């Protein structure tokens, strides 16, 4: 038996194209999830289809991304179907895991996608490392507490350092230090900051 499954992640998307493709593929029953994109337990249509499927059946989908919410999830579902003697057929990709060639193609696609994800992750880490070497702040801007702000002010007033240097020594970005200084109403114009104007921040005589 060929069982169809169709899914759209939002209610305003149209599922008709998927249903027509599944009908043309000879599906005897079709289950749908409209506006569901979570795990199996959050997709009642898929859960019902999985419960109906029996050994020798084929689960037909319009496209691979309609079944799995991620590559790992998709592979997990395909492996589960295989253990139960159930094939998966994707209309768009023309992949049939019921054949040795189709199953091989599916796993090759999964391996290539995993490889690409690894390359992207590696490039991201390399870019972050290069940014750190340049002294560029990475990730969410760090917060500057009262002690840190006082230390930065001391560096600006008595150390003769630039805003960028003072911020870097506190482990924050220049923009974060500027915002903290503005909140303290310590300067009129951030761009005009220099060691010459520093005495304006001093609270002493």
Protein described:
The chain has 205 residues and is an alpha/beta fold. It folds into 2 domains: 2-113, 3-Layer(aba) Sandwich (Rossmann fold), CATH 3.40.50; 146-201, no CATH class. Helices cover 47% and strands 11% of the residues. It is built from 7 helices and 5 strands. It has helices spanning 16-24, 44-52, 71-83, 100-133, 146-159, 163-169, 174-183; strands spanning 2-8, 29-34, 58-61, 87-90, 95-96. Strands 2-1-3-4-5 form a 5-stranded mixed sheet, with helices on both faces. Strand 1 (2-8), helix 1 (16-24) and strand 2 (29-34) form a beta-alpha-beta unit. Helix 5 crosses helix 6 (163-169) and helix 6 (163-169) crosses helix 7. The longest helix has 34 residues, at 100-133. The model is unreliable at 186-205 (pLDDT under 50).
* Low-pLDDT runs: 186-205
CATH level-1 class of the largest domain: Alpha Beta
Q: Quickly count the helices.
A: 7
What integer is the average pLDDT? 80
CATH homologous superfamily of the largest domain, by name?
Resolvase, N-terminal catalytic domain
Residues in helices, as a percent range? 40-55%
Calculate the terminal CA-CA distance, rounded to whole Å: 90 Å
Shape: elongated
How are the elements arranged and paired?
Elements: E1 2-8, H1 16-24, E2 29-34, H2 44-52, E3 58-61, H3 71-83, E4 87-90, E5 95-96, H4 100-133, H5 146-159, H6 163-169, H7 174-183
Parallel strand pairs: 1-2, 1-3, 3-4
Antiparallel strand pairs: 4-5
């Amino acid at each position: 038996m060929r069982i169809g499954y169709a899914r759209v992640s939002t209610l305003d998307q149209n599922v008709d194209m998927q249903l027509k493709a599944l009908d043309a593929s000879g599906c005897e029953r079709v289950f749908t999830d409209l506006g569901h994109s979570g795990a199996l337990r959050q997709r009642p249509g898929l859960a019902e289809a999985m419960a109906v499927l029996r050994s020798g059946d084929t689960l037909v989908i319009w496209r691979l991304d309609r079944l799995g919410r991620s590559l790992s999830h998709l592979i997990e579902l395909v492996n589960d179907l295989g253990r139960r003697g159930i094939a998966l057929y994707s209309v768009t990709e023309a992949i049939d895991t019921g054949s040795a060639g189709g199953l091989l193609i599916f796993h090759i696609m999964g391996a290539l996608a995993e490889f690409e994800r690894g390359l992207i992750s590696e490039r991201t880490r390399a870019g972050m490392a290069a940014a750190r070497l340049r002294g560029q702040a990475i990730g969410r801007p760090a917060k500057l507490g009262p002690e840190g702000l006082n230390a930065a002010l001391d560096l600006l007033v008595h150390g003769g350092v630039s805003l960028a240097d003072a911020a870097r020594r506190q482990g924050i970005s220049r923009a974060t230090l500027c915002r903290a200084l503005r909140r303290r109403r310590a300067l009129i114009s951030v761009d005009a900051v220099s060691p010459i104007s520093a005495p304006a921040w001093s609270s002493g005589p």
